[in-house]
Design a protein that fits this description.
The chain is mainly α. The protein has one domain (15-70). Helix content is 85%, strand content 0%. The protein contains three helices and no strands. The chain has helices at 2-12, 16-41, 48-70. Helix 2 runs antiparallel to helix 3. The mean pLDDT is 84.
Length: 71
């Protein structure tokens, strides 16, 4: 809970354009995760490299987003 309080003021002071960017970035990461989940549920994953690369892409995107919000 302390983490939320730490960043709460940053979000409330964030310009609308930045909020749009954050929302767009989160939806983008969510899309990748939803596709990966769907592929797992439907046994469409034949190579673990695909899953690993998808997760790395999401991790990288979230890390960049966290840095953007923190600055």
């Amino acid at each position: 809970m302390k983490l939320y309080k730490k960043y709460n003021h940053l979000v409330s002071e964030m310009p609308e354009l930045h909020k749009d960017f954050v929302v767009s970035s989160l939806y983008s990461q969510l899309s990748v995760l939803n596709q990966l989940l769907d592929d797992f549920e439907n046994s469409k994953i034949t190579e673990s490299d695909y899953a690993i690369e998808s997760l790395r892409r999401v991790e990288s995107g979230l890390r960049k987003l966290r840095g953007f919000i923190g600055n």
